[in-house]
Amino acid sequence: MGLSRASLGFLGLFFMAGSILLIFLTLLAGTRNTTPLNQVYFLQADTGNIPGAPSTSRWTFWNLCGVTDGGKNDCGSSHPAFPLDPPSHRNFDTTDNVPSQFIGTNHYFLMTRFMFPFIIIGLFFAVVSLFTGLLAMCTRIGSYLSGFVAWLALTFQVITTCLMTAVYVQARHAFNSNGQNSKLGVKAFAFMWTASACLFLSCLMYCLGGAVGRKDDGYSGRKERRRGFFNSARSNSVRSQKESYA
């Protein structure tokens, strides 16, 4: 038995709400040293041999954090669109013991900078789609409108996630090749890729809701036209019989 437009609209809302929650958890990581935000980061590296750097460093959207004895983020003041750029004054302000891959290039700086506006734009469209999703449960136009906005959110979310994956995987290799053990933040990557999958499912549910509505409306319209045709034919037949008897 197929799902109704209301059911598909509700599923679209459910997946959209889940994606927004995951995006917020990743986006706000580093802004406060509270659970669960103090457990989310993009990259962790051993930087104890870099002058002025903490023994272990973690990068988030907002700052460069140290690590507490309990393995949590120890972040200071927040700066939006905080870049991964170890040699610059934004990170360590030195080239001593910094991997050579980071020196003399803006590659890491630009890629991590662009992540921030893309995720904000994607989050904006996701929130808009969440509200228009209420209409998707009632109308076919609301379903298609929500699906289109969800598709925009998915586009920017995928761009952000791909940039994040590419740049931080490269950075991990750079630190490891320099003898500084590093690893990716499992939670941040899991949240971002899962959010992308939820956005895709939400977009799919909204579009299916519109298609189901169109099919039902078309069937009802054909049924009404067929009923009208037969009623008209029956009326004409009865009228003809009455005229012949007269």
From TrEMBL:
Question: Could you mention a single GO BP entry for this protein?
Answer: endocytosis
**From what superkingdom does this record's organism come?**
Eukaryota
* One CC-aspect GO term: membrane raft
Q: Which InterPro entries match?
A: SUR7/Rim9-like_fungi
Pfam families for the chain: SUR7
Query: Which residue ranges run through the membrane?
Result: 7-29, 114-136, 148-169, 189-213
Membrane as a keyword? Answer: yes
Q: Sorted alphabetically, which keywords does the UniProt record give?
A: Membrane, Transmembrane, Transmembrane helix
Q: What is this protein called?
A: MARVEL domain-containing protein
Origin organism of this chain? Penicillium steckii
